[in-house]
Amino acid sequence: MTLRVTCVSAGIASLSAAVALRKHVSSIILLEAAGNIEQMDVRAAGLTLLPCGTKVLQKFGVDPIRDVQAVRVQSILELDWKDGFLRRETGPLPPTCFTAHLGALFDALVKKATGADDDGHGSPPAQLFLGKKVVDVDVASGKVTTEDGSMYESDLVIGGDGVRSTIRRAIVKEAIVQPSGLSVYRWTMRPSDWAHLPQYAKARIDDLVGPENNHANVIDAGEKRIVTYGCHESGLVTGALLFSDYEAPRTTEDWASAGSLAHPLLHHSALLQLEYLWERVYGEGSQVVVGK
Ligand SMILES: Cc1cc2nc3c(=O)[nH]c(=O)nc-3n(C[C@H](O)[C@H](O)[C@H](O)COP(=O)(O)OP(=O)(O)OC[C@H]3O[C@@H](n4cnc5c(N)ncnc54)[C@H](O)[C@@H]3O)c2cc1C
């Protein structure tokens, strides 16, 4: 079929659309605002791949373990905020539940979308253009204009440009984004980041998120929550501390903004009350709590 497609962005949504469509269309281009795909802020996070997401990836020919180095997550442990003891375990989870690193997932999808055709359809690879922030789209003609003045014409425009989508605004005139009222500190850390700690601290961290541990941990205190899990076969661990915007020094709608380790530790003394979980570890090196 002769159909030219423009995907606005190279986020997960656009990349997935490009992978799904490439064998059905004559050309696909992806216009991504970020200048460098290796340094996109969004990469430095973990992602839970639930059965529906896994099924889609498998349909794309992307195997979570082989291609994304994902970790099979067996259960979710809910731990008490005050003492770190197990409150509840949900599981075993279906065998198609994984945790993954967003960067690894990105790379696998970019390869599938822009790499050589590997399913014998002879479909042309999608072309990825970086540093192309879309500023306007003419919905009727399919013309897309980028900040640098370039114009791209196609038969179908797919808006994968996130929560503040330019495309959505152009189509449905709706631009309201409702803040959740929550901010989040996110981190990733490698086993080498806690290798210098005393044995008892290492053992506890290994117990929670070490390479042999395939659980997602949720430490909940109602208005605050810490989520941690291993997200890559290399042992990389991801975590997030969610808390109310009211407690944040400043908030933005970006994936990344300046923050400091002092803030979550200062304002979340509850972190330090996690005797079993964090207290001693914190005493040895706060980077273990908030990572890099
Ligand atoms: C802190 C945080 C933690 C999260 N944790 C999880 C999790 O653990 N599990 C999970 O499943 N989900 C999680 N999510 C949600 C998940 O990241 C999003 O649902 C997912 O990234 C949405 O993908 P997307 O492709 O629609 O948009 P995005 O990932 O937002 O990608 C949008 C892309 O569009 C580009 N772009 C924006 N505007 C333009 C423009 N005008 N022109 C060109 N390009 C543009 C951006 O640069 C970006 O690359 C988290 C989100 C956040 C913020």
TrEMBL record:
Specify the superkingdom: Eukaryota
Which keywords has UniProt assigned to this entry? Monooxygenase, Oxidoreductase
* GO MF annotation terms: monooxygenase activity
Q: Which family does it belong to?
A: Belongs to the paxM FAD-dependent monooxygenase family.
Output this protein's name. FAD-binding domain-containing protein
Annotated organism of origin: Epichloe festucae (strain Fl1)
